[in-house]
Each structure stands twice: as structure tokens, then as C-alpha cells.
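Service request form, structural biology core

Requester: graduate student, group of Dr. S.
Request type: structure prediction, single chain
Budget code: on file
Notes: please return the result as C-alpha cells.

Sequence provided:
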Amino acid sequence: MPQDAAVEPVHGEVPPIRRGTRFAVVQAHCREWFDPTKRRALAALTIRVGGAALAYVMQLLLARWMGLAEYGVFVGVWVWLLVLGGIAPLGLNISAIGWLSTYHDDGDHNRWRGLLATGAVTTLTMGLLVAGLGWSTLAVMPDLVAQPYFVPVWLCLFCIPLLAMSEMSEGISRAHGWMNTALVPTYLLRPLLLIGGALIALQSGMALDAELVMALAILACLVTVLVQGAVLLVRLKHLGGSGRFVAQPATWLLASLPIVVAQTFELVTQNFDMIAVSYFLGPEATGIYFAALKTIALLAFVNFAIGAATANRVASLHAAGDNEQLRRALDSAVNLAFWPTLAGALAIVLLAPALLSLFGDDFAAHAYLTAVLAVGFVAKSFVGPAELYLNVLGQQRACALVLLVAAAINMALNIVLIPL
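Core staff response, request fulfilled:
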């Protein structure tokens, strides 16, 4: 009998799988496992999880080395830096992902080169303008910033164009599927450089205050941007070569406007609590709150993982018009997000005193903050990664409106309740 010939089953038995069929199944699974999109998603998730763990260790070490008050000053200023640095690219770091990929696939290398140049120039210019505006404001109104924060704020403005360029480089790398180039510098290299610099300063007998650590952060950001930029330039040169530049800055910036608006609301929603705590309660409370927030924020990776795993399927079902399967997929995603988040929240709240004690003796007594923050994360898990799904389903305006309302409510509640 030929090797792959069918075998008639005996009544009541399951038909045996032919050997050729088994080989085809194995091949299909191998193709699925080595699919480039899935490998990139897995690489991104791995780097993000590893980066979150490294960032947590970095904050823990800085809190112990700096002391509560200086640590509170540093993290209070750093939050402002993340907000301003995230807004400076004007959304081009996100919108360019789709355009660059399309231009390259279509062989439109002139517009591809034009967008690369426009993104870099716009991002650097906006970063420098924001920094310059900040320095001018401090010069005209020095009393606007409390004394413990003044010098660290002045220093942090150097980082804004650097962080903005890092955001743009990440977007360009993502557009070409270069996950390592996109994520490793920001999530692994930069915190390692800051930890290393702080350790060297400590071993040299220097006092780790907020001003010194902010100066080290500038150096870490600069090295990160230079390394990431150098790698990116080499890869882009091999990919597109040289040629004409066709730029359409008005078109690209106008299309990016909804993105930067939504991104601004999102950044405000995520960080305004820290800004309000640092303004109303001072450095010590800021340091304690930030440690509790970083501890409970580990739950955010549940939504991130669910979104990364299901976004492609949601997009495919929407494109196919299969609303019933789409509804089931969304319901399943919510369940997948809620129960692990709830379980994780309970575990972190129980372990909070031990975890916060790692930051220093002043932190463990405030472990109750993790329980309060956990309520918010569990409530958010009721809708799963809804923001991602709205964007995938083409509902960017609805997403921006939701974020606007959420940001307004967030700001109002923080301003009213935190000083109480």
C-alpha cells in the first residue's frame, strides 16, 4: 500500500491520520509559530515585560540610595518629563508607522525618505521649542516651581528633545518590524545606564540627590538616543539607499492631529495624579505614592498582553464584517483581562507591605495605597484593552472623546480630593 494511501476505519473507530497529513499539520504549526508578525509581537511583549521588571528594580534602588525626599523630587519631575517628551513628536511617531510601511512596500522611496526627514526634523524642533519655552518660563517666573524642584526641573528640560527623538526612532523602527531597535534602547539600555551611573557615583562617595540623578538621566538619555539613532541609520541606509526627498509635512501633521490629541489626554490621565501629589503634598508623599503606583502598575501588563494577542483577530473579524464573532472575541478578551487582573490585584495587595519595604523603611507603612490603586486597575479591566480596540475598529474620534472626558474627570477629582 502506498505510504499516504487512505486506510479504511473499522466501524466505531476513529480514522487514523495519514502520515502525510500529520506532516502537513506539523508544517502548518511551524509556519504559524515562525510567522514574522507573531514573532515580532512576542519579542515586543518579552522586551516590555523585561523592561517593566528592570524599571521596577531601578526605582527600588534609586529610592534606597537617594532617600525618600530626594527620590520624591526626582520622580515628580520625571513624570513631567515623560508627558512633555511624549507630546513633542506631535503624533508623527505613531502615524508614521503605517505610512512608512506603505511607502516602502509600494516602492515610493522618495516619500519614504521625505517622511523620515520630516519626522526627525519636526520632532527635534518641537522638543527644543518645548525645552526653550520651559527655560524661558523659569527665567521669567522662578517662583512658579517650588525650591526643591527648581534645579531638577531646569535640568530635565534637556531631556525633552532626547526623549522626543527616542519616541520617533521607536516609531520608525516599528514601521519596519525592527522590534529590538525600537524597544531595547528605551526599555533596557536607558535604565541600565542610569543604574550604572548612579552606582558609580555612589561608590565614588557622591551624594545621590535629585540634581545629580537628573544629570545622570540626561547622560543616559543622550547615550540611548545616539546608540538607537546610529543603529537605525545603518539599517535605513541599507533599506532605502539614497535619492530624492518628497515631503508632505502639512498632510502628515494634519493627519497626526487626532493622534497627538488622544495621546495628550492619555498621558494626562495616566500621570496627573502624580503631578497633583507632587504639587499639593510635597516630595516625601510623592515618593511614597510613586512607589505604590509602580508596584500596582504591574497589573497593566495583563491588558497589554491581551491587546497584543487579540488585536489582529479583532481587526480581521471587523474587516470581514463578522459582527457575531467580533462580539464574542471582545467578550472573551474582557474575561481574559478581568480575572487575571483581579487575581493579580489581590496578590499584590497582600504582598504590598513586603514589596514596599524594599524601597525603604518609610514606604511599608503606606501599603494601603496599593489597595486603593488596585480598585482602579480592576475597574479598568472590565472593558479590557478598549482603547486599542477602538483604534483598530476605526473609532479614533470616539476614542479621543472618551480620553478627553476621562482626562477632565481625572484632573477634577485629583485637584479636589488630593489636598483633603
